[in-house]
Design goal:
The protein is an alpha+beta fold. It has 14 helices and 25 strands. A hairpin with a 2-residue loop joins strand 12 and strand 13. The radius of gyration is 26 Å and the shape is globular.
Length: about 725
């Protein structure tokens, strides 16, 4: 077995004062964060530590026992990163506890029954005498156990010299008996194939069932090859499902397996793919450390840092070591050290008039800009750092009001447990397969601890992220997406013209035309409904026909074409009706174009913009355990301006809660179709610049027919957007 640290070479150290000038975080902070997360779950372990039953108001659809296994497996992976990265040093005694839990969880049941014969949905204090309070559900009976087997096996592979090799033969055999069913075909046809690969990698290293393990690895790699689309992108199954799983599932498992096994041939195949993916993926992180909240399982949070760490570990990354740590530390800090002022407000009245420029959603929820006597930075202030583990005063002084005394809104609760949500608990974004311990797949974000203290990722000075250095618009070919970032505010937007959710539902994590690192998508939240009237949140960043008072869903998006700074797709919201849509971006400006084909004349349409939460102020994350904070950051302002086809100016809609807070507002434009084709064009903007110019000033746009748009941007550059023809028109 190749040591996880074997590819690391010490690099020159940065001067102490420059080491972590952006985030203030060092390796010591990462270790402390891992310890805090692991120690917080200890009170919830079963008698022999086989299950970790975290509190929560609802179990996953797999049941409480499966959730308890999830608690063990996902926190065990974090413990494995922590101990393996410290070369076996284990000051908090994590290994003995997890070793005991491993033996208890896989122990045979009463009368020699196989591990986990007890119903996976039932676990209670009355099971203690027979050992059932610790026993894991069988992989053959509980699909979710396949997922958790990968974390169990990967942890064993990483800590093999300090745990596996110390177990007696009987315990090793019962663990193997529990793991072996994971080598069968995946019950789900997506990234789940890689869980069997991960189990097989451990067994292969340990010299157990090596032929069967090899077959499992080959079969898994053959399957994902069917979904490889080039330019760094897989589809997560036989569909067009693109989200963060590409980085820390589709790339993570094959590359890490090849690295740990010392398989140069596999690494030569999958390493460059990871590099290509990271070239785009690392552009999706905001200057505040926020990953892009799109897709499913957002509660895994800082798992988003796993792929950049892996690129640095294997040498397949476009980032320098200092930029890698700045990205990863910024992301972890974004979730674990965060201050937010929340003005919960009241959602009174359905609509409010927009601003003068066709509408603005402003931080104070009014129709007028909110001015202050002092401009605030839009991204975290650099923090002076003397040396690893030291604490220093932020380089930018605390604002006039002093450190924030507002409630902390972070990913962990008062008990130190990760919550189901984003910044804090957020039920509307949680999938039914998620239980109380699901967030601990965020443990993957601690992969960087496998690189020793002398590795350049820990010794080089932090460097700026792509989103901080220059404005950029990046076209992603296979997923038909557009990344738009602005250096002035460190804000990143993702325009979606090709990612679709598996299934027939219009999942908001996949169906929106745009996402950003500073806003959340709207959902229908019955918990916020008023008596006698359900709360149906208007869809943000959506274009719809209005039929019988209801907005049509977007439906699956089929990519059509792309070019410099633009991407286009087609959808079919109704039989016989198709909508050709395109987004063109430059600076902070977004031109949104929709050509409606086949709708009856007089059909109403609606374009919505970004969902912004008013009355909310986010402070730069205080340095850990000091309470110091930077000045409050400017909250984003959304603008929406009609250019062609719409009637009137934008109006403001109450949109309910998002993962960024309650009481969001969404701007909307209205129009009416004319047969047989109707073109609708608008200018949108989302910016955290203080007092931004109106959206109308960002570009001069001339419509040269139903499919051609000429643009002169604010800086004088020009562009032409020609909408592609529908396939049968070619």
């Amino acid at each position: 077995m190749l040591s996880p640290n074997s590819s690391s070479r010490p690099g020159p150290s940065a001067p102490p004062g420059r080491l972590s000038s952006y985030t203030g975080w060092t390796r010591a902070d990462w270790e402390a964060a891992a310890d805090e997360l692991l120690l917080a779950v200890r009170p919830y372990a079963s008698p022999r530590h086989g299950l970790i039953n975290l509190p929560g108001h609802r179990p996953s659809w797999s049941g409480p026992r499966s959730d308890g296994l999830e608690g063990y497996a996902r926190t065990w992976l974090l413990a494995a990163f922590r101990v393996a990265g410290a070369e076996g040093h284990d000051p908090h005694g994590f290994l003995p506890r997890y070793a005991e839990g491993l033996a208890a969880g896989t122990s045979p049941g009463p009368d020699g029954a196989a591990p986990g014969d007890t119903d996976a949905r039932d676990v209670g204090p009355g099971d203690t005498a027979s050992g059932d309070a610790d026993r894991w559900p069988r992989i053959a009976d509980t699909q979710q156990a396949v997922v958790e087997s990968a974390s169990v096996a990967l942890g064993l592979r990483l800590t093999r010299p300090w745990l596996w090799d110390t177990l007696d033969g009987r315990t090793q055999q019962q663990v193997v008996d529990w793991l072996l069913p994971a080598l069968g075909p995946s019950p789900v046809n997506n990234n789940w194939w890689l869980f069997g690969l991960t189990v097989a990698g451990f067994l292969q290293d340990a010299g157990i069932e090596t032929d069967r393990a090899r077959q499992t690895i080959d079969r898994a790699l053959e399957r994902i090859e069917e979904w490889w689309l080039g330019e760094g992108w897989y589809s997560d199954g036989p569909n067009r499902s693109f989200d963060h799983y590409n980085a820390w599932a589709m790339h993570f498992y094959p590359v890490l397996h090849a690295h740990l096994g010392g398989d140069a041939e596999l690494l030569a195949r999958y390493g460059p793919r990871l590099h290509a993916h990271l070239d785009a993926y690392t552009r999706m992180f905001g200057a505040d450390g926020a990953p892009m909240p799109y897709g499913r399982s957002l509660t895994y949070r800082f798992a988003a840092a796993a792929a950049p760490w892996l690129g640095a570990m294997t040498g397949h990354t476009p980032l320098t070591p200092g930029a890698t740590r700045r990205l990863a530390s910024g992301t972890l800090r974004y979730f674990l050290d965060r201050d937010v002022d929340l003005d919960l407000g009241r959602d009174e009245g359905e609509n409010e008039d927009g601003g003068e420029d066709g509408g603005e959603v402003l931080p104070n929820g009014s129709g007028q800009p909110k001015h202050s006597g002092q401009a605030s930075p839009a991204q975290p202030a650099p923090v002076a750092k003397e040396a690893p583990g030291d604490r220093a005063t932020p380089a930018i002084p605390v604002g006039p009001a002093g450190p924030s005394s507002s409630p902390r809104r972070r990913a962990t609760d008062a008990r130190g447990l990760l919550t189901l949500g984003w910044h804090g608990p957020c039920e509307p974004i949680i999938q039914p397969y998620s239980g109380p311990a699901s967030p601990y797949w965020a443990s993957k974000g601690f992969l960087g601890l496998l690189m020793p203290a002398g590795h350049p990722v820990w010794t080089a000075a932090e460097e700026a992220l792509p989103a901080e250095t220059a404005d950029a618009v990046t076209v992603l070919g296979p997923p038909a997406m557009l990344i738009q970032s602005t250096a002035a505010d460190g804000l990143v937007r993702l325009h979606n013209h090709g990612s679709n959710h598996v299934g027939e539902d219009d999942d908001p994590g996949y169906s929106r035309y745009a996402y950003s690192t500073r806003t959340g998508f709207t959902t229908t939240d019955q918990a916020g409904a008023r008596p006698g009237r359900p709360l149906a949140s208007p869809r943000d960043n959506h274009f719809a026909l209005i039929i019988d008072g209801e907005c049509t869903p977007r439906g699956p998006a089929t990519p059509l074409a792309s070019g410099p700074g633009w991407v286009a797709s087609v959808t079919a919201p109704l039989p016989g009706v198709r909508i050709v849509s395109a987004t063109m971006a430059h600076g902070r400006a977004e031109i949104r174009v929709h050509l409606v084909v086949g709708a009856d004349a007089g059909t109403r349409v609606r374009q919505t913009g970004w969902a912004c939460t008013p009355g909310r102020r986010t402070h730069g994350a205080p340095e850990r355990r000091t309470g110091r904070a930077s000045q409050p950051a400017v909250q984003p302002i959304a603008q929406l301006h009609p250019l062609h086809g719409y009637t009137g100016t934008a109006r403001q809609l109450v949109a309910g809660p998002t993962m960024f807070g309650p009481g969001a507002r969404v701007l909307a434009l209205d129009g009416v179709t004319t047969a047989p084709e109707s073109l609708f064009v608008s200018l949108a903007s989302l910016t955290a610049e203080p007092d931004p110019a109106p959206a109308a000033a960002l570009a001069d746009i001339q419509v040269g027919g139903p499919r051609t748009i000429h643009v002169t941007w604010q800086d004088g550059t020009t562009a032409v957007l020609r909408l592609p023809e529908l396939p049968e028109e070619r």
